[in-house]
Structures
1.
Amino acid sequence: MKEQSPAAAHMTLATVRGWVRDAGRIALLSGAGMSAESGVPTFRDAQTGLWARFRPEELATEDAFRANPATVWDWYAMRRDMVAKVAPNAGHAAVAAFQQRHPNRLTVITQNVDGLHQRAGSPGVLALHGSLLEDKWLDAPRPCCLSQPPLEGRPPRCAVCGNLRRPAVVWFGEMLPVDVLAAAEAAARACDLMLVVGTSGVVYPAAGLARSAAATARMVVVNPDASDLDDAAHAVLRGTAAALLPQLLQEDT
Ligand code: NAD
């Protein structure tokens, strides 16, 4: 953990609200903490129940899926079911409401795969790490894969060649979708203010977007705990997404 700079520590909510009011273009980079108050565990939270003996980093890789497809499929199925049962929180709602009041002024860039920004009504969300709610072919689909629905199973598979369906998320060690990353980099370059909400700042290239934005724009960390991005921030607001975002983005800003 890094110490936040003394200057950043003295910035208040009122100051940052002024920055929101003055910013022509805002980018909001969110991480797992954005959805914590909806009941979606972050990766830093302990895994529970049957999954307690696995680390997410050992499940969220192509090698893990190829070695144990049923185990990894079941873990994602559990997470997909969990996300289906929860709702966007006041933070997601405040972001979406701001975007509806100020079209094209705020771009959401998220590391989350839970679809909660989209369900709250945020338009044009740049989902850097894909979606938990969708799946795709593990290997490049052959004509047989596309000619009939996959066979049900854990995971589903092509009846002819055995190609597997996999979650449409970006696993550790995989490239981010090129077009989404390019759009996120453009939003980070164009913004006057970047709000970095609920991310530990250890996963790259996502964390790099906040570091590069800090060179040309104001960068504000919103997190109840210390993060790796605090040292680069112009302000650090210690609090949760659902508590602080409505205050930062409320009507009169
Ligand atoms: P992380 O688990 O590394 O860090 C979460 C951060 O959120 C921590 O810094 C924590 O202090 C902060 N936090 C906790 N509660 C908060 C709250 N109520 N409000 C604001 N901040 C809060 O998450 P990460 O940085 O996003 O990186 C982990 C990776 O895991 C990402 O690649 C992401 O795709 C994936 N992931 C996604 C989800 C999801 O889609 N909801 C959940 C878990 C992990």
2.
Amino acid sequence: MTEPGPRVVLLGKQGAGKGTQAVRVAEHYGVRHLATGDFFRAAARDRTPLGLEAKQYFDRGELIPDEIVIAVVREQIGADERALVQEGFVLDGFPRTRHQAEQLDVVLDGDGLDVVVNLDVPTEVVLARIAGRRVCVQCGTNYHVDNPPKDPWWCDVCGGHVVQRDDDTEDAVMRRLELYEVQTLPVIQYYRRSGRLVNVGGEGDSDEVFAGLVAAIDARVDRS
Ligand code: AMP
């Protein structure tokens, strides 16, 4: 029988590197990576009714209402709950409100999570990261003002134009970070109170941060 994988929630502000690290962690343990943001973006691209409704919120940088998100997660996890709980998973972008966190405990029957990792990066660092971020309009490759394409500002990968996203200006990022504080800090407190939270520093390079995450998860997962 294969070893069960860890059941992880990964939390972190925009620009903390959460998406990149969630993919690496899921690959490392061979578990499913469930990202609500990816799900809603794909639904919007496919122009499903749910996707079009969700798009109205994320285009404004707002959170999608809890009822919609919870229904989607229920559908994704609920149908497969036993397998997911046995095999492990990395949840990325969910939960984002305290109500979502409580509902996740209900869906997973209370004891489904091994560890909740808060990828911790100071606000001034994420501000600099995001405000300097540039993206190819054609293929989506990310650059940074400190790490531009060889021929500025034309993409190394596809030759497309590399620009700053409308929602990546310092003002817009500040607004998203304030929203994060208001809505997601209670999630951190919820998990801290129930003893499931660990903080991992997210300021180092990608390999250092990844090593810190794996060490924190391994320390919490006891399958013996
Ligand atoms: P992300 O890629 O995780 O930053 O998500 C992109 C957008 O999808 C967010 O700005 C929200 O509008 C929406 N979204 C994703 N996950 C959630 C969630 N758990 N609760 C509310 N909105 C979400």
